[in-house]
Every structure is written in C-alpha cells, then in structure tokens.
Amino acid sequence: xxxxxxxxxxxxxxxxxxxxxxxxxxxxxxxxxxxxxxxxxxxxxxxxxxxxxxxxxxxxxxxxxxxxxxxxxxxxxxxxxxxxxxxxxxxxxxxxxxxxxxxxxxxxxxxxxxxxxxxxxxxxxxxxxxxxxxxxxxxxxxxxxxxxxxxxxxxxxxxxxxxxxxxxxxxxxxxxxxxxxxxxxxxxxxxxxxxxxxxxxxxxxxxxxxxxxxxxxxxxxxxxxxxxxxxxxxxxxxxxxxxxxxxxxxxxxxxxxxxxxxxxxxxxxxxxxxxxxxxxxxxxxxxxxxxxxxxxxxxxxxxxxxxxxxxxxxxxxxxxxxxxxxxxxxxxxxxxxxxxxxxxxxxxxxxxxxxxxxxxxxxxxxxxxxxxxxxxxxxxxxxxxxxxxxxxxxxxxxxxxxxxxxxxxxxxxx
Length: 414
Known about the structure:
Layout: E1 5-9, H1 15-24, E2 28-32, H2 36-43, H3 54-64, E3 67-70, E4 78-81, H4 96-105, E5 114-117, H5 125-136, E6 153-156, H6 166-172, E7 175-179, H7 182-192, E8 200-204, H8 205-235, H9 240-247, H10 270-277, H11 283-310, E9 314-318, H12 333-343, E10 347-351, H13 360-363, E11 368-369, H14 372-375, E12 382-386, E13 404-406
Parallel strand pairs: 1-2, 1-4, 2-3, 4-5, 5-6, 7-8, 9-10, 9-12, 10-11, 12-13
Antiparallel strand pairs: 6-7
Helix pairs in contact: 1-3, 4-5, 8-9, 8-10, 8-11, 10-11, 11-12
C-alpha cells in the first residue's frame, strides 16, 4: 500500500498531535480544519491548544515542510478522520461532523486510498462512513462485510491518549484496529506501524468501536461509585477522603477519588452512546452517568449553603478545566458550577493557571479570571471552593481560617 501523503481531518486535541507525530516520522501530512484561524496558526508553526511538547513537534514539522494545514482536503494516500462527536441535548450522539468530513474528502478519493475513523463513535458508525462515501462517490467500490473486493479500505482505530501525555501515548500505547473487512484491518495496521511502538491489535470495526466506549464507561462507573460515596458520606457526617483511604487498605479495593463531576469529551459523553444503542439493557451504565451528571448540582447546593450561613456573596473558584493541569474546558463540571453560581447572583472569581481567558459566555455573566495571588485579597469576603486539583494548588494554598470547601481532595492530599 502506498503511504506517502496523509491527510488528518480535524486539527483539535487529537488531530493536531497525531498529524505532527506522523510528520515527525518523515511523512508528508496535510492537516485539514474548517477554522481559518487554526489553519493560519499551524502554518506559522504555532499551536492553538495547550499540550506538553506539542509546540516543539508541530514547529519542527512545519519548519521541515512536512506538515501543512488547509481548510480543504487534498488528494492523499491515507485520510484520518478526527472530528468531534458530541451528544445532543437528549443524550443521543451527533455524528454530523463525521458525515461532513466524509462529504469533504469524497471528491479527492482515489482507488487504493485508506480511510480511518478515529473519532469516538457509536457502534456501526464506521459502516456508515462506507455508506456515506459510497453515496458521494458511486463510481468507487467501498468495503462491505464478507466482501474483500473494494477500491477504498476503511477502518476504525480509536485514540487512547491522556491529555497532558498525548505526544508520548500516541506512540507508546497499544492500538485497536478494526477494519470493515480483514484487508481493511491489514491496511490500517500497516499505516499505524509507521509511528506506533505499542501493539497494533486487529479486530473488527464494531468491536473496536464498542471497546472504546467500554473503556470510558468502565472509568465512568468507578468515578460514579466514588462520587456517590462522597454524597452519602456528607449525609452521614463522614470524611470521605479518610473513608476511601482506609477502604483502599484492603488488598483488592481501589476506590477512585471523588470530584465535582465528570468532564471532557470522552468519559462524560461516550457512555451515552451505549445507552442510546441499548436503552433497555444499559441500566448500570445509565445510572453511573446520572450519578456523575448530578454531582455538580450537589456541589452547587453545598456552596450556596455555606455562602448563606457565612453571609458571603463572593466566591473564589479554584480550577475550571475538566481535569488537572490542562486547558481543556470541554464538558467541565467546574465550568458548569461557575456559570450556575454566577447565574444565581454571586460574584465569581476564577483561578485557572492553564488558561488565559474564560469562555465568552462565562465572561458575559460577570465572572473574572484572576491569579492565585490576587485570590487572597478576597479572603475576608468570600467562600473559597476547590474544584480542580491543579499542581499549582497542591501544597501551595494559604487557606487556614478561610471559609473553604474542597471537592477534589487538594487539602486532604497536601
């Protein structure tokens, strides 16, 4: 199979690092994104997202001429789709970005091309990619189950990286490669072997899709257990952090740490894909999602109770991202809490070292982004709320004698 030029469709938290890593292996990569600002930023050798080591890899790839960005797809040997797959208000998956990506690449497809979907997707989406592409290009033959005669190979390979460690994990982590047919799997395995040091494990498309959803649902279930424990412990006047520490002394118990909820594009979203596909069977998965989705409301209630008791209208929120030490605000429970508190009429001051400005819709509510040093100026007039365990907070807070609520264990783990 010819693999000289690779197009990566979608230059976000997964697409851009993937494009840069592939280019670092000496391959010509064309990054495609509909956002003109993103394209311009990358073509200048800069990045629009915060991720350790990403700037240096992108800058080197652009400087060498191996990585370029464009708003329109161009002919390539491999097309890798890494676009968002959000959920709608009714918790059903939105695959419209994938369909749009298929429509965009269809005119430049040629016989012998490989199309890979990396976006986290409901089971059966890879087969829909084949259907959509065949609709846009009826002159080409696309893969179907039990039929190895095709012009275009199509496979699914979910990303499995941790924000903050993306560059390393793109190379080191094992990859599940699920083709619509065995030849599709073989072709995709050949491609990933160019830059992946981890094992490339063959399977079929549906199993690979479900495996990705299963991984994140497993984590969601475990987080829900910890979050539910924190709510029960509050009712029974028990220190949940001490409770978990003691329970984890059991050799076969490993309870996670509770938090203000669950955020990010994966764990907060993917379980709903399973629920939507099997609503009558996915009882436990649905319950875990509901527990984690309801945790921010519990947090807001506790904050308001303390604010009323102490007669405070100022609230200093420490942390806004969906997890520590990153700039990613997608589905962030901390951000949801901040906005709701502002809507309820509180004056909100946000300390988040990983961002330079708050989202426009948050700023419009009157919230202010401040430094940690500036946060202490409100100590006599505010409630302090720990929402994200950023490294800048651990062992570095001066909150003695200040009205404080810790929802992420920063003070306990000092």
